[in-house]
Amino acid sequence: PWGGMSTDGIVILYGEMDDIQSTTLTHEVGHWLGLCHTWDCGGGSCGDDNVLDTPPQHTSNGFTTDPGADPTTPNPSKFPWHVGLPSGGSPNYGCLADSLNPAGEMFMNYMDYTNDDYCTMFTKGQVDVFDETLEGDSTEYGFRIHIWSDDNIAATGTADGYLAPTCTKKVFFDENLSHYSLCLGSPNVLKGNKPIFSSITKWEWDFGDGTTNGSGNNTPQHIYSSVGSYDVSLTVEYGETTEARAANLSDLDLINATSYDTVKSTLIVQGTQAELNAMGATNISIHSNGYLGAYWGFGPTSTYYRGEIEETTYIAYYTNSCTSTITKSNFITVLPTAAANNSSSYAYSFENDSELGTDWVANTIEEDENIWDFSTITNKTWERIDGVASDGSASVMIEARDGLSLGESVIVSAAYDLSGFTNPVIKFSYSGAGVHSYPVNELNVFYSNDCGWSWKSLGSLTPQEVVDAGLYKSSFKPKSSDWNDTIMFDRVGPNALQDDNIRFKFEYVTNGSSNNFYLDNIQIGEESALFQNTNENNARMAVYPNPTKGEATIVIEHLADRDVEVKLVNILGAEVMHLFEGNVISNYQRIDADLSNLENGIYFISVYADGKSIVTDKLILYK
Prior knowledge:
This protein is mainly beta. The protein contains 7 helices and 28 strands.
């Protein structure tokens, strides 16, 4: 209750309301109005709840893990509870001497964890805490004074005669399996939110190609006959009945009402005789006479009475006719069954604005207006940014520093004909940072050969790799040394990227807080060509994937006609595996390594040429 607006309230499982005897909600409202548990306010055994007329108790009288607690649970037949020492004489139970607390622990208090059947009361002191929380005192406003203010009563629709806004339900739909792109001839299935509406007179889909469906189907299937992007609309017309309630009939708008009812109910009230007389209660009788005061010092007001009062409520009904329409632009994209792009290679450094939005398209996130969300964190997607790059002067980024909603942010490529390639791969540069030492976000890379209908995993960057640049409090922008390169291809069986209709998808998965993440210099082409270094003649090595789950590819360049050794060593420098030894006959040498029998950890790959150490790179094994 003392947190921010997004968490200030009571969350309760619906199952707790199934039992009419349940006191769980009463207990939680007690917390919301300022009460601690009866046994402590965060201290420990025999703690203080800061209410004078609740006696101290050892711990919870319900479920407990305290090894010193009484293994039995209280009930009225055991009153007074925890009076007298337990067998063995150890004073683990009573917190006060019996002479000071002859009634023992107040197990029937709502703020204990006692069985629901036996929880029946708040004390006068606890009620005083409620009053102070709601009203304040002579020096301070109450923490929840806003709850009963005129402005809040009006704003929350709890004033007598309040007429709720009409036609507030909004129609919404999505692709049933998130198939927003598909090949020509493939069906797509939409799904609306029809179950939230009643008295529907019209439920009509418009698929954007001149075809409509007014059958009322909530999950229609449609096949487009032409390639293109289509706007999709859904319209609902429905009727609703709203109510307004008041204690006085004059507070209701009866002119526009369809009808109204008069509801009388009898309420049972409890208090002192003077309090019940002031309410105009009838059938007053003594309910509890004095024994509580005798034990816990409540004074003469501990004689309580019960009575009945009659309450009259007037309910007016209003009938409304409503219409709601939603249109999603370019919602479904129908693509050719074979790609038109058939170059020998592709490169994207995002120097032009057009690259993000044409060959690479970022997802846009639309939310159902009917879902409550108090979070101040907004959904974000990939965006182009100038002045940060591994190649050129621009890149694309996920701005995660200021927070992201949990979920996925996606960027999808155009389609490529890679059927003529020998070993097609995708290469890209990345850089990212974290805000704490427990990274949880990751980057997944997928490919599709069916126009995005289904996606298969190509590889991923682990949470540790996503924040490889380290921890930054401020918004992270990588230096040139913070960028990493990696190459991914289909490693299971024949390279499935050898297809005439390949798309790629980068998916940034937000599982918690992080800093910014960047992508740049995306290249698609032959594996051997993407490792050619035209800018320098010195030897270099590339390792991918890195981190690896057990299999790694090592590529060394510019060591032709040299006797080469490649060793894997641990962090102590001890060799754990001999990866390669022999004469390299070209400037490109690929080595496939199976590391699945090694333990997780950090290793180093060292390359020697003619007995001399040439280059070393770090490898992380993370199975």
